Amino acid sequence: MSKFKKKQANTKQGVPTSAMPDVVFMLLIFFMVTTVLREVELQVQIDYAVAENIEKIEQKRLVSYIYIGPERLGANRLGETRVQIDDALVDDINAIRNIMYDKLMEQPRLIVSLRVDRDSEFGVITDVQQELRQAGTLRINYSTRRQI
Amino acid sequence: MLNRKRKRESGDIDGSSLADIAFLLLIFFLVVTTIDVDTGIGLVLPPIPDDIEPPPVRERNLMNILVNERGMVLINEQPAAVAAVRERVKEFIDNNGVNPDLSESPDDAIVSIKTDRRTPYNIYIDMLDEVMGAYAELRHTASMDRFGVPFSSLEQGSERRAEIQEMYPKKISIAEPDQG
Question: Which entry of A87, B28, B137, B143 is 20 to 30 Å from B77 by CA?
């Protein structure tokens, strides 16, 4: 018998897994809280512009979105620049004032978030802004990503 | 009497599949999550004028920024580089009547941005971003001078924040583009 017996750790090998459900639940709850289920089906392609001096919209329930970008035609083809409010494309740009006016009546502190494709021409945005002025929804926000 | 031979089962629920269920839910939420962009540049549009003449603005208090479709910039009819816009705007706003060509006070200064109809949106956003950046820097400096803390750390809706905002009110006008 050797005098110097090798000391062997008595602990069992293997990671205890009893806390795993807890960890998983924590992650689960995190994702459940942060999830925003997509409310609208986007029919226009939007590639956001980037900017540096941006602010966060704190009160999300005040926000109403207008999407402007090239229409998705399927098979990765893109069409003309169109305006989408909620689930539908707007055919007549002058209809925007009525739509937005109705929204303003429901929510007097409405903020309109313009989600515009970066390559859209500014003319369309001006037309939409004129409509917004007519409707009286003056608080707007240009959606942009943070510059990295 | 019939003797029940069956042994009573234990009342515990088997917990080993709990992790599986949790994982399944986790994966579902991972897949459907879209972390939404809800950041952007805020602006207030001017109301439609009711046939009232807008108050006259002295020319020195107005800075005209004109951007064409290729991203070339004119400031007060003089060509300028995009990178120089921020400094020019800061100089213009914070002039306080020193230079007779620039604004009388930050309160009077109006920055007007005008684009072509065909200007791409991202060029416009870049320009707006530069102007916003100029205001942000001025407010930051004012806040550091007065309170010794950055403007961004002043609480939303606090008196101090309102005071700085009052010092440098954002007066940005988005002019209607010409047809073209």
Answer: B137
B141 inside domain: yes
Cα-based distances in Å from B163 to A132, A139, B43, B128: 30, 22, 19, 23
Test B41 with A54 for CB contact under 8 angstroms. yes
pLDDT digits (tens, 9 = 90+) for A84-143: 888 888 888 888 888 888 888 888 888 888 888 888 888 888 888 888 888 888 888 888
Q: Show the domain range for B141.
A: 59-174
Q: Do A121 and B119 touch (CB under 8 A)?
A: yes
Residues of B in Cβ contact (< 8 Å) with A145: 37, 39
Residue B170, in any domain of the structure: yes
Residue in A21, A31, A145 closest to B30 by CB: A31
Would you call A55 and B39 a contact, using CB atoms and an 8 Å cutoff? Answer: yes
Kindly indicate whether the ipTM for this predicted assembly is greater than 0.85, answering yes or no. no
Residue type, B154: L
Residue B162 has pLDDT above 60, yes or no: yes
CB A141 within 8 A of CB B44: no
Which tokens hold the place of B84? 């120089």
Size of the A and B interface in Cβ pairs below 8 Å: 149
With cut-offs at 50, 70 and 90, classify the pLDDT of residue B51. Answer: low
**Residues 48..87 of A with a Cβ closer than 8 Å to B: which?**
48-58, 60, 63
For an interface test with A, which of B21, B24, B31, B37 has the most A Cβ atoms less than 10 Å from its Cβ? B37
Which of A61-70, A101-110, B92-101, B140-149 has the least mean pLDDT? Answer: B92-101
CA A62 to chain centre: 15
Give backbone dihedrals phi and psi of A72, rounded to 5 degrees, phi first. Answer: -85, 125
pLDDT digits (tens, 9 = 90+) for B118-148: 888 888 888 888 888 888 888 888 888 888 8
Q: Do A132 and B34 touch (CB under 8 A)?
A: no
User: Can you read off the two tokens belonging to residue A124?
Assistant: 């369309």
- Domain A49-146: give its CATH architecture: 2-Layer Sandwich (3.30)
